[in-house]
Each structure stands twice: as C-alpha cells, then as structure tokens.
C-alpha cells in the first residue's frame, strides 16, 4: 500500500505541487469573487475551461501549430508561450466579466437573495459549457506541443521537467503579482475595502460596480492563467473539463478559507499534494473521497478554513 | 392588471373561501393533478420520451425531491448541495434488498427512508454546525462520496449498477405495467400529497417556527431558546427521508440503477427547481420541480441545444424573478384581514 | 415598460419557447414509408460516439433509398445521452411507438439494460452496434434475469470477454517477460474489460500482472498512476478506458521517460487517439474491429460524399445493423413480430465481408478482434488476434 | 434583602491578547433593576454574551438561580430563565410580531416534531396556550395591535419593544436588555422607562445596559459601572453618579483635575 508512496515520494511531491499551483490560480478566481460578493462563483470552472481554449486558439490559429508540429525553440518558444498565456487570460477574463454582467449584476442591484444568484450562475455555467460543446461537437481537443518536455535533472529519483518548473515558477510569479496588486494598488485596496464592509466602502465613494467588475476580471485572469498552464502540461481540453478542476479548486479555496488569498495558495498546494498522495496510497479512485474527508476534518476544527475569519454572526 | 400577482391571487381565493369551499378546491386540484397522465395527447405531449413516463420521472419525482430539499434549504436556510446522496441511498437500498431478499417495494420503502434518515443524522451531527457555503461544500462532498463508494465497492456491482429491480406489487388489484405508467404516477402523487400534508402540519407549529427562526437569524433563534442543532438535524433528516423515499420509487420505476445516475448534477438540478419555483413556498417549489423536470423533455425538438436553452431559462428567470415564479408568501395582508374578522 | 410586465414577458417568452411548435414528420402516400430508430448519445459528453454511429445508419438508409425507389425510411433519433437514467425516460415512448419496427442501438450497455424492459414489453427488435457487456447475451450471468436481452436484443459487435483475451495477447506479443500493469477509467465498460484482461493474462505465457489502478474518467493528471507503473517496473501498460484519456495518459507516460508498451481496447481504438497523442502514441497496440476506411476505402469515400464527414467509430457495425433491418423492410417484414423473425434468421454477408448470423442469444457467431499498431500517426491493421 | 438570582464571580474573558473582562464580580438580586453602564468598549455586551452562553468565559463562573452556567448550550440557558434583547435589533423579520413571540414561548413546551405532525392533543393545547400567552405579553408591552404585521415592516420603536416582548416570551426570571432605548427620543425614553418598571413590577428581574443617564437614574435600583473590563463601581444610582472614578471613566480625566 505504501510502497509506491515511499518509492516515488519525491516524484509525487513535485507532481502534486505542480498540480497544486494550477489549483491555486483557479482557487484565486473563486476566492476573489467570494471575498467581495460573499458568493460562490459557480461559473468559475467554465471560465477556466474557456481559458484553456484561449491557449489552443493562440497556438493553432495564430501560429499555425498542429498536432504534428515540432515544438518551438528559443525566442519563438517564449513568444508563443507568452501569446498563449495572454490569450488564455484574455478569454477567461472576458468570460468572467460577461458572467458578472449577465448573471450577477442585475441581481446584485436588486439586493436579492443569494440563492437566486447561485442558480443564475449555475445557469450561466451551463450556457458556457454547452456553447463550447456545440462549438467543438462534444469532442476533446488536443493542443499542439509547443514546449518540449525535457527532463532537466533527476533528484532523489524525482524528475524535474521543464514544463513542471515553468508551471511552478510562472504560476508562483502570477500569484505574487496578483497578491501584490490586491494588497498595494489603489483598485486592490478598493477591492479589499469592499470585501470588508460594502456599505462603508460605498460611503467612502468607491464605485462598487467598477470594483466588482475588476474583481471578476482579476479572478478571471488568474483562472485563465491556470488554463494556460493546464494546456501546457496536459495538452488537452474538452468542454467538460471545468467541472472536475473547478470542484477541486473550489475545495482548495474552502480549505484555505474562502475569501482569503493566502488561503487559496495554501489550500491549492495542499490539495494538489493530497490528491497525488491519496492516489498513490489508496488508489486513484479514492482521491476525491480522501479530499472531502480532509475537508470535513479541517472544517470541523476550523469552521472557516485554515485562514478564514470566523463567520459567527453574534457580534451583538 | 398591473399589480397582478399569481401568488397573491391564489392566496386571496384561499383566504376568502370557507371550510367547504376549501375542501372543494383541494379535491379539484388533486383530481386535476391525478388526471394529468391523460393529457398526453394535448400540447403537453413530449416529442420523444413517453409522456406518462416523463410524468413519473423526472416530473413527479423531481417535485417530491424538491419538496424534500425545500425543507432543508427553503424552510431552515441550510444550503445543501449533496441532496442526491439520500436519493442514491434510497435507490440503492431498494436495489440491494430487491437483489438479495424477497422484499417488495412497499416493504423496502420504510427501510429506504430509514437508511436515508440515518445517513442524514450521521452527516448532520458533525457538519450542521457549519454555516452557509461551508455547509454547502461539505454536503456536496458527501454526495460525491456516496457516488464514489457505490462505484468502487463490489457489493453494489460497481459501475455496472444493479439491474433487475422488481416492479412494485399490484395495488388494489391493479398491476404496474411498463408501457403504462399511470399507476406509478398516482403512487408518486400520493407520496407528494403526504409530503405536502407533513410540511404544512410542521410549518404552522413549533418546528416550522424553529426552522423559520433559524433561517432568519440562527444565533438569535438559539438565544430565544430554540434548540437549533436539534431542529437543523430534524430538518436535514426529514429532507433526507423524502429524498430516500424518492430514491426507492425511482429504483422501482427504473428497474436499473447505476452510480452515474447519482451525480452532483442531480443535486444542483433539484436545488434549481426549488429556487426557480420559489424557495420556501410549497406551491412554488412544486411548480419549479414540475417545470424543470418537464422542460428538457418537452424541448427535445431543439435536441442539441436543449441544455443551452435550459441554462438560459435559468439565467433569465432568476434575473427577472429572483424570488422564483411563486415567491415565499408574505402573509401579512392575509393575516391582518383574518385578525380583523376574528 | 413596467418591471412586472417585463418580468412576465420574459416568462411568457420562456414558456412559449418550451411549448412552441415541434416538428412531426408526416408520411407521404406516394411512397412506402417505414420507420426505424437509432438510439445512442446524441447530446451530452458522449455525443460524438452517437453522432458517428447515427451517421453510419443514415448512410445505410441513403444507400438503400437510392437503390430502392419507392421506399422512404424515417429515422427517429432517440437521444439517451449514453445515460441509463435518460434511457429509461425515452425508452417507454419508443417501446410503445409501434411505427418503429426496428431500432439500431442502444450504443451503450448501461443504457441498453435500462431500455430493455420497455423493448421486451413492446417486442421491438434492437441491434446494437457497440454495446459490449457480456451479460446482455449471457443467460448464465448473475444478473441474467434483467440483463439478458433475448429475444429482442442482438448485436453486431464482439463482447468484452472476447476482447479481454485478445487484448491481453496482443499487448504482450513479442514480450517473453511481460510485466503488465492494467488500469481502467471506472466506467461500466472499462471495469469489466479490465477484469477480462487480467483473467486472460494468466493464460499468457511469461506474462505477470504487476499492478493496476482505477482512474476516474475526468482525470487529466496521471502522475500517481505513472508512479505506480514505475514502482512496479511494468513494461506493458494496458488501459481499458477510452481514447481521449488514453492520449493524455500516454503523453505523460512518455514524458516521464518510460518506454513501456502501451496497449488499449476498442475504446482507445480511434483515429483520434493517434491524432491527440501525436508522437507519444507511436507504437501503441490497440485491439478493435476494422473501421470503414480500413474495410473499403471506396465506401469510405462514398460515405464522405453522402454524409459530409468521415466515418467514425463503429461505422461498419452501424451500417451492418441498419442493413439488417433495411433488407427486412425490402422483404416485406413491416411489423415488429415479422422483423424479429427476420433478424433471427438473418444470414448474409456484412460489409466487412464476414457472415452475419445471430446465435440464439443474439450474438454474432463470427467476427473477432484485430490488432492495430499506431504507426506514423495511423492505426495499421496487423490482422486478427486469435 | 432578596435572594441573589445571578452571580458573576471573578469573571474573566480574553480574546487573543485582549482582556475584555477582568475579574468581574456582580450580583443581581431578585426583583431589582440593575443598570450596567460604562463607556463604549467597556465590556458590557460581553457580559451579556458570557451570561447567555455566546462566549465561554476564560475563567470565573456564572451562577444563575443555583445553576452553574458554564458549558451549557445557549438554548438551555434560555430555558433556565435568562432572556435577552439585542442592541442591534435582531428580530425574525419575515415572521409576524405574534410569531416572533410564540417562537420564544416554545422554549418551555414539551411537544416537538412528532406532536406537530400528528396534531396530538398536547401539541394543540400548547399551540393555544402559546397564542394566548403571546397576545398577553404583546398587550402588556402595548403592541398587540401590531400582532399580525411582519416584524421587518414595524416602526422602529415597535421593533425595539418587540425585542423585549420576544424575550419575555421565554418566561425568563432574568431579563437582559441591551440598550433598549437606543435611537429613542426623550419622550419615547420616558415611555420605555415606564414599561421597564412595569416589567419589573410584574415579577421579572432586569439587568439593563444603557447609555442614557436620565433613564438609568429614573428607573434603576442599582448601577454597576464597567471600565476597560473592570468593575469600578456598584451602588445606588445616587452614589454612583458622584463617584469620581465613574466620572473619570466617562470624561476621560480625573474628576478633581477639572
């Protein structure tokens, strides 16, 4: 049972961290919106899915790569990857803003119940995934290989591959940029102000609509970046991939304490690791069960996640 | 017409009626509902699926499940995204007992309900302390766990599912038939009526008040002496019981169950029924379950874009009627009148 | 516009949409019109399989109508989404619609089992091009009471218990010390097939089963599975799931530096596997039944001309299945009962050349699996695996 | 002297590094109105929260009517006879005024879910009793005319009174009122003062948090003063009013410095 785990520990750890960093970025999408609106953005998984298609459209239609093309090298490699990243973020960012506009804005203006918004978002995510299904005739779409997956070094039996390294470093960098943005920029401060106290923020003259749109955009950009890394690593997408990834990332956000950016980071990485370890020890079929049990245990001891604030309403 | 509102219109008729008129209204409504299976040739016809089968599942069973979920989400305000778990437990109880014992559907029914309630208590005790979205994700996880376990253990036949579930034994000498599902519809209708009766009974008395208080302000409720955890568990368990009953019926109707029938989508769909129809309002919830159960089969002529349209309908209706088609009753007006006359 | 009115307008629009006109096809009197049905996933995640199969059926009908003026065949599309829950909703309608005298499908075994009671009740003969679960034609299986499809169920595809040994054999061919790792995708197709493969491996000389896994079909990160493969030192990896996951997996396997042989069953047997997997797919060993292009490039060209797209998976089987019914219609078998008799006694060549004749359980007596090797991005037929 | 109903002994409450209550001792005697005053952030509401079980005290004990309240659930404490109102009104807005009170009267009823479902005689009787009692309380507080209005639609003053009525619904021995006069104009305050006295005269014991000195001086039998979590005075209104430490706490400067 544990032989694989012990035998391949470092390999599993590296894979888990790389997967975890993708979760971190998607979890950011959930957590940013949650922080401001106190609502689960159910459509975030489909925003991710649209992001993955952004990367494919860029490489396939912009640069003319196909399944049999040779991987890119040197400056061209950097250029293609950068454009892909940009395209993913743009696709996802635009989708996110559309979601906000169509599914959230009107309901928020009415100040209505949260569940209506939740169902509206669920409807929107059905629309997003169905549109993509019709566009792709329900078929999986492969991504051309842009980045050659060279094994750079082997340490303790663990391979460090180029794509893994790039994912961890670039995703980490994007995370830090976003975190700094929220912490330091004017708009970021406005976002935090709204997430702390909406009414007070309004009184301070913050344009709520702009802040919320920006939040969706930033969350969408992070989620889109995740889409790009997903494509670079797995070179595959389909209209229904959002669901599984979204669910895992959402769980990660909750474990970390939804609404908390550092929580999303911690939750994402630990979820990636938990998933890989559980798969190795218990069998891949039990990974989701393990994750949910971990989630329940975390919430039993920390009812608002590891970094979350207490939600007890009693402040009388 | 400007202020016409179906909910108030209906409530108004009810308020103005005397005891005998009310009995008449109830009887007429039940009769109309019971006659639904005969409307197959009208504009209600479903293009591909058999109309009377659609009336049983999804329509009637969705209505039943929506009523159950409404106790949890609508009455006591707990967001449950794993309602499918209880449906699955009911269905698998029927499947397994039907496979291993000679029990028939009606004998299995109480066992299925009991199993679902037991699961409800088991899940409820540790998790119902959580609030809002945290509860949502934990229940969601529970739903997935049930499905994954059913998929991976051998005694449920794994992904192959359980086939050959027995049809229910005849009722009053009338046999259940595969090509004519009217009887089955009436059975589910009776379950729905029982559930409505139960919910109405509970809502006007202590449990209803406790749930309502919990939904509006859990802390204040507890400080006013409401044993919140107890009533939350009751709410959860009753919801589970109805979900379990629906599962038993579903297995008996379908004769075949497999884990892929019990995905998160079911939970989400039932939640959509509740919110779409009018959360907290029994009639709204019934309407929501009926429409969302029925719609996909009615619009099969747009075959491939069906789910797309379904999603759009959700977005549009929620945007224009955020409290659902028939919102929760605002009882003030009606009560004032009654108080004045009394 | 007043808000309330706007709101009601939206609802009216939504309802109008749902109750709007729906097309019904009416038969014209001049030609003889008959109705067949195809059942399979035409929407949802599995839609591509169903659309491919239905295209095969449509092609057969076009060819038949062109060759037999005066006949018009209506094809009812029965979309079960490949989902047993949906199947049990649509099947009663099909079962009671006596215009339908024969049904090609259902595509998937789970949906078949859910539909069977209704078709048995209506004595509707079905011929599935792709439902491979053994119990459907096995009177001795523990679930025979419900799954066994006699007298109405037939299939023109070989069963999982025939494929299991073929796959085990073909995957380990030429490897005298095969250390085999088998994994599935948790689907009702892959899990039993994995069982048959593992059982068959015991009879393959030199082969040992060193490990396995069960990976949900939504997984894209296979690193734990690959870790297991490495830890077990496997040199043959058999996947019993479907092609899209297989392509993702095999890429990751190769990227990890493994050179183990990759093999898969007819779920992986799909040109799309080679396309998606690219270089990583080279040398993969797949078992399956030859596709239309492989059987006869001329028919394939005609197919593309008539339908507009290339033939897909199970095209040959779908055409064969449709042809059985069509020839019945030609021979005046226009009731369900007559059609059932016709199918039972059917004994003609299919388009692949082999004779199609059903045994008493509804299985074809002939037909087996061929081995294919992915070479240069295409699936090359290496002949039948006996 | 009448019997001690509620006794806080060396009550300390810490949140992280912040000490909200520091070794507070307090006695509430049966049938009196005790006012708890102090500057903002002095820990007054924290005292209420500890008594009602919202917080578990870091150390010290709360004894009510002979029962140690430590570790008891909030609804159990309410059941023993402690009820409170909220500084920021927390009524059940979607319920009617009457239902708000009935929800509270349920606490001493025996019938539960099963009784409600099958309409057992006891459940029916208790429903009737609840209704009668709720109307009685509403009449007592003087808001019975609003009985069938939704709580969220009530005028502000009525909502404040309903808070008290709802708390009385639990048939408490001790009533904790958290700034019941907040937002009231002087005239309303006078009326409220009369109501609170009436409540006391009806046999309830009242522990009151209030800022308005004239109201306090008018109705309370005793006044306790908290400052930074420490009790600095506890005596009759007249004495406390002239206590230099109290004046210092309120004005922020030593009394003799001015």
Q: What structural class do the secondary elements of chain B suggest?
A: mainly alpha
**Can you count the beta strands of chain A?**
4
Count of helices of chain A? 12
Main sheet of chain A, how many strands, which sense, barrel? 2 strands, antiparallel
- Give the N-to-C terminal Cα separation of chain A: 52 Å
* Number of β-strand runs of chain B: 2
Question: Which outline of chain B best applies?
Answer: globular
Integer average pLDDT of chain A: 88
Q: Largest interface, per-chain counts?
A: B-C, 55 and 53 residues
Principal-axis shape of chain A: globular
Oligomer: heterotetramer
Overview of the structural elements:
The complex is a heterotetramer of chains A (about 325), B (about 350), C (about 375) and D (about 260). With about 325 residues, chain A is mainly alpha-helical. Chain A is about 75% helix and about 5% strand. Chain A has a domain of about 210 residues. In chain A, helix 4 runs antiparallel to helix 9. The longest helix of chain A has about 35 residues. Chain B has about 350 residues and is mostly helical. Chain B has a domain of about 210 residues. Chain B contains 14 helices and two strands; from the N terminus they run H-H-H-H-H-H-E-H-H-H-H-E-H-H-H-H. Chain B is globular, with a radius of gyration of 20 Å. By secondary structure, chain C is an alpha/beta fold. Chain C is globular, with a radius of gyration of 22 Å. In chain C, strand 9, helix 10 and strand 10 form a beta-alpha-beta unit. In chain C, the strands form three sheets. Chain C has a seven-stranded mixed β-sheet with strand order 7-6-8-9-10-13-14, sandwiched between helices. In chain C, strands 2-1-3-4-5 form a five-stranded parallel β-sheet, with helices on both faces. Chain C has a two-stranded antiparallel ribbon with strand order 11-12. Chain D has two domains: about 170 residues, P-loop containing nucleotide triphosphate hydrolases (Rossmann fold, 3-Layer(aba) Sandwich), CATH 3.40.50; about 80 residues, no CATH class. A six-stranded mixed β-sheet of chain D has the order 6-7-8-3-9-10, with helices on both faces. Chains in contact: A-B, A-C, A-D, B-C, B-D. Chains B and C meet through helix 3, strand 2, helix 12 and helix 13 of B and helix 1, strand 2, helix 3, helix 4 and helix 5 of C.
Short description:
The complex is a heterotetramer of chains A (316), B (342), C (386) and D (258). Chain B is mostly helical and 342 residues long.
Can you give keywords for this protein?
heterotetramer; A: 316 residues; disordered C terminus; B: 342 residues; mainly alpha; 2 strands
């Amino acid at each position: 049972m544990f032989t694989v785990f012990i035998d391949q520990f470092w390999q599993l750890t590296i894979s888990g961290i790389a997967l975890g960093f993708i979760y971190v970025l998607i979890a950011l999408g959930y957590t940013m919106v949650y922080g401001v609106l106190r609502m689960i953005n159910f459509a975030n998984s489909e925003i991710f899915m649209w992001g993955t298609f952004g990367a494919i459209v860029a490489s396939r239609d912009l640069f003319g790569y196909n399944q049999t093309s040779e991987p890119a090298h040197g400056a061209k490699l950097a250029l293609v990857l950068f454009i892909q990243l940009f395209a993913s973020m743009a696709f996802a960012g635009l989708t996110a803003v559309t979601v906000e506009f169509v599914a959230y804005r009107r309901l928020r203006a009415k100040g209505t119940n949260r569940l209506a918004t939740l169902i509206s978002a669920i409807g929107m995510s059905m629309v997003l995934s169905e549109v993509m299904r019709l566009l792709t005739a329900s078929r999986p779409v492969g991504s051309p290989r842009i980045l050659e997956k060279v094994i750079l070094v082997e340490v303790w039996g663990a391979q460090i591959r180029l794509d893994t390294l790039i994912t961890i470093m670039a995703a980490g960098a994007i995370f830090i940029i976003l975190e700094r943005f929220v912490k330091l920029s004017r708009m970021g401060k406005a976002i935090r102000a709204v997430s702390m106290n909406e009414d007070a923020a309004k009184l301070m003259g913050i344009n709520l609509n702009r802040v919320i749109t920006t939040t969706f955009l930033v969350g969408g950009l992070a989620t889109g970046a995740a889409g790009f890394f997903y494509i670079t690593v797995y070179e595959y997408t389909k209209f229904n991939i959002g669901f599984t990834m979204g669910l895992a990332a959402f769980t990660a956000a909750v474990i970390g304490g939804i609404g908390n950016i550092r929580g999303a980071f911690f939750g994402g990485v630990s979820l990636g690791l938990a998933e890989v370890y559980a798969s190795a020890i218990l069998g891949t079929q039990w990974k989701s069960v393990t994750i949910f049990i971990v989630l329940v245990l975390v919430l039993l001891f920390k009812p608002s996640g590891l970094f979350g604030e207490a939600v007890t309403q009693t402040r009388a | 017409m400007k202020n016409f509102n179906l909910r108030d219109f209906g409530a108004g008729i009810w308020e103005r009626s005397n005891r005998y008129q009310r009995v008449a209204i109830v009887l007429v409504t039940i009769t109309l509902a019971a006659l639904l299976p005969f409307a197959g040739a009208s504009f209600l016809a479903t293009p591909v699926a058999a109309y009377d089968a659609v009336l049983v599942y999804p329509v009637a069973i969705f209505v039943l499940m929506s009523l159950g979920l409404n106790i949890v989400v609508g009455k006591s305000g707990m967001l449950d995204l794993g309602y499918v778990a209880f449906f699955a437990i009911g269905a698998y109880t029927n499947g397994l007992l039907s496979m291993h014992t000679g029990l028939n559907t009606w004998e299995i029914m109480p066992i299925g309900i009991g199993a679902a309630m037991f699961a409800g208590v088991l899940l409820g005790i540790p998790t119902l302390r959580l609030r809002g979205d945290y509860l949502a994700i934990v229940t969601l996880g529970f739903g997935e766990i049930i499905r994954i376990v059913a998929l991976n253990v051998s005694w449920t036949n794994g992904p192959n599912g359980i086939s050959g579930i027995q049809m229910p034994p005849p009722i009053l000498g009338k046999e259940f038939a595969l090509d004519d599902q009217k009887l089955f519809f009436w059975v589910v209708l009776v379950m729905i009526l029982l559930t409505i009766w139960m919910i109405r009974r509970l809502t006007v008395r202590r449990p209803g008040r406790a749930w309502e208080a919990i939904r509006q302000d859990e802390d204040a409720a507890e400080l006013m002496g409401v044993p919140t955890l107890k009533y939350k568990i009751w709410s959860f368990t009753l919801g589970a019981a109805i979900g379990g009953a629906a599962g038993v019926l579903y297995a008996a109707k379908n004769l075949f169950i497999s884990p892929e029938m019990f995905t998160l989508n079911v939970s989400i769909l039932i939640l959509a029924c509740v919110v779409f129809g009018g959360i907290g309002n029994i009639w709204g919830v019934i309407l929501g379950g009926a429409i969302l159960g029925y719609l996909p089969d009615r619009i099969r002529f747009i075959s491939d874009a069906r789910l797309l349209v379904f999603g759009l309908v959700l977005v549009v209706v929620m945007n224009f009627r955020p409290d659902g088609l028939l919102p929760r009753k605002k009882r003030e007006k009606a009560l004032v009148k009654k108080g004045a006359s009394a | 516009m007043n808000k309330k009115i706007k709101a009601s307008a939206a609802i009216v629009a939504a309802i109008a949409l749902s109750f709007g006109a729906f097309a019904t096809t009416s038969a014209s009197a001049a030609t003889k019109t008959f109705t067949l049905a195809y059942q399979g996933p035409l929407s949802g995640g599995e839609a591509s399989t169903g659309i491919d199969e239905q295209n095969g059926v449509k092609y057969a009908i076009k060819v038949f109508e062109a060759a037999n003026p005066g006949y018009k065949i209506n094809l009812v599309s029965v979309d079960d989404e490949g989902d047993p829950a949906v199947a049990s909703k649509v099947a009663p309608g099909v079962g009671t619609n006596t215009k339908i005298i024969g049904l090609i499908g259902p595509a998937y075994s789970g949906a078949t089992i859910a539909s069977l009671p209704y078709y048995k009740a209506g004595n509707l003969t079905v011929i599935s091009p792709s439902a491979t679960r053994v119990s459907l034609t096995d009177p001795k299986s523990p679930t025979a009471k419900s799954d066994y499809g006699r007298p109405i169920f037939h299939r023109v595809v070989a069963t999982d218990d025939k494929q299991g040994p073929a796959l085990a054999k073909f995957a380990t061919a030429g490897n005298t010390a095969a250390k085999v790792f088998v994994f599935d995708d948790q689907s009702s197709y892959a899990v039993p097939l994995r069982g048959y493969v593992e059982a068959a491996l015991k009879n393959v000389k030199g082969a040992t089963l060193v490990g396995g896994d069960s990976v949900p079909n939504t997984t894209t990160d296979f690193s734990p599975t690959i870790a297991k493969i490495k830890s077990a030192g496997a040199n043959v990896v058999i996947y019993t799931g479907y092609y899209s996951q297989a392509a993702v997996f095999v890429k990751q396997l190769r990227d990890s530096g493994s050179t183990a042989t990759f093999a898969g069953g007819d779920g992986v047997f799909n040109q799309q596997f080679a396309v998606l997997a690219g270089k990583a797919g080279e040398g993969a060993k797949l078992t399956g039944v030859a596709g239309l292009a492989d059987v006869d490039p001329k028919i394939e060209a005609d197919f593309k001309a008539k339908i507009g797209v290339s033939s897909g998976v199970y095209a040959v089987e779908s055409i064969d299945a449709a042809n059985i019914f069509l020839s019945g219609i030609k021979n005046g078998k226009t009731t369900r009962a007559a059609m059932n008799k016709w199918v039972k006694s059917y004994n003609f060549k299919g388009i692949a050349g082999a004779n199609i004749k059903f045994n008493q359980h509804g299985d074809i007596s002939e037909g087996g699996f061929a081995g294919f090797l992915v070479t240069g991005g295409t699936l090359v037929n290496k002949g039948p695996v006996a | 002297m009448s019997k001690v109903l509620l006794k806080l002994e060396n009550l300390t409450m810490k949140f992280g590094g912040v000490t909200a209550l520091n070794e507070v001792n307090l006695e509430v005697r049966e049938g009196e109105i005790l006012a708890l005053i102090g500057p903002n952030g002095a820990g007054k509401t924290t005292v209420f929260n500890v008594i009602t079980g919202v917080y578990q005290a870091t150390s010290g004990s709360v004894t009510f009517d002979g029962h140690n309240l430590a570790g008891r659930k909030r609804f159990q404490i309410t059941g023993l006879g402690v009820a409170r109102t909220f500084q920021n009104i927390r009524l059940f807005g979607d319920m009617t005024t009457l239902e708000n009170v009935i929800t509270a009267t349920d606490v001493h009823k025996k019938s539960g879910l099963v009784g409600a479902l099958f309409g057992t005689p006891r459940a029916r009787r208790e429903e009737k009793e609840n209704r009668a009692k709720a109307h009685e309380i509403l009449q007592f507080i003087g808001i019975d005319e609003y009985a069938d209005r939704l709580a969220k639609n009530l005028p502000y003053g009525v909502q404040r009174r309903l808070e008290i009525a709802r708390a009385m619904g639990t048939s408490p021995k001790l009533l904790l009122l958290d700034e019941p006069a907040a937002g009231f104009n002087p005239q309303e305050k006078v009326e409220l003062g009369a109501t609170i006295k009436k409540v006391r005269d009806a046999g309830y014991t009242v522990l009151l948090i209030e800022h308005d000195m004239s109201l306090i001086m008018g109705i309370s039998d005793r006044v306790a003063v908290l400052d930074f979590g420490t009790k600095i005075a506890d005596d009759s209104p007249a004495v406390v009013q002239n206590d230099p430490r109290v004046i210092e706490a309120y004005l922020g400067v030593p009394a003799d410095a001015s």
